[in-house]
């Protein structure tokens, strides 16, 4: 076993806004298993690691250069499992991705790449297949940042979602019709609400100016299972 890497100081990184809200809402809720899908070089993994020091984090990054940086960062940390994989709807396969160094804009391609675009063939699996292979029964926080392919990743977890074996789900969503890069927020609610996942909060909101008019471009909505162990009611605010 590798020794566990010491956590970075509290001043080293910003807090994760969702996990901060979760701790404030219910400090007793135990986060033991986190999936960081689209981990890049470990920016969010770092935040999760510090916020939930006893959780096992499965960090997925398919691009070779980004994965190398991610693995180097957590190679001696027993609590982080780095996986050189892309997640999707199918249990096995490959995909072609834009591969511009360690850019956070790298993403799966739906069509032939334009000439000169750096690309990389990556290995793919589904969340369900990965969980079955590794004996994972419960995910407390599933974070997905797949640059427009979040819905395909989510569909790879459908069995676990229907069984409410995932407590919280975070995706990246388009918040206005002009943003066609990301999956529309309404598509996520249409998929998740009938299964009993309701909106918990909107995080990392990014606004834009389109044709001189302001709008919310994208955000990271978090959905919560409605089958959790009952939470305590919040104390009434004092006037």
Features:
12 strands, 239 residues, 7 helices, globular, Rossmann fold, alpha/beta, 31% strand, three-stranded mixed β-sheet, nine-stranded mixed β-sheet
Named at the architecture level, the CATH assignment is: 3-Layer(aba) Sandwich
Please state the overall shape, judged from the principal axes of the Cα atoms: globular
**Main sheet specs:** 9 strands, mixed
- β-strand percent reads 25-35%
Helix-and-strand structural type: alpha/beta
Distance between the termini: 53 Å
Portion of residues within helices: 10-25%
CATH level-four homologous superfamily name: Vaccinia Virus protein VP39
Number of helices: 7
Q: What is the radius of gyration? A: 18 Å
CATH class: Alpha Beta
As for the CATH topology, it is Rossmann fold
Mean pLDDT: 89
Low-confidence stretches: none
Number of strands: 12
Total domain modules: 1
- Helix/strand order, N-terminal first: HEHEHEEEEHEHHEEEHEE
Characterization of this structure:
The chain has 239 residues and is α/β, with parallel strands linked by helices. It has a single domain (17-92, 126-217), classed as Rossmann fold (3-Layer(aba) Sandwich). It is 23% helix and 31% strand. It has helices at residues 17-25, 43-51, 64-74, 127-134, 150-155, 158-162, 185-192; strands at residues 33-37, 56-60, 80-83, 86-88, 93-98, 119-126, 139-144, 166-170, 173-174, 183-184, 197-210, 213-225. Strands 1, 2, 3, 7, 8, 9, 10, 11 and 12 form a nine-stranded mixed beta sheet that branches. Strands 4-6-5 form a three-stranded mixed beta sheet. The longest helix is centred in the N-terminal third of the chain and has 11 residues, at 64-74. The radius of gyration is 18 Å and the shape is globular. The model has no long low-confidence stretch (mean pLDDT 89).
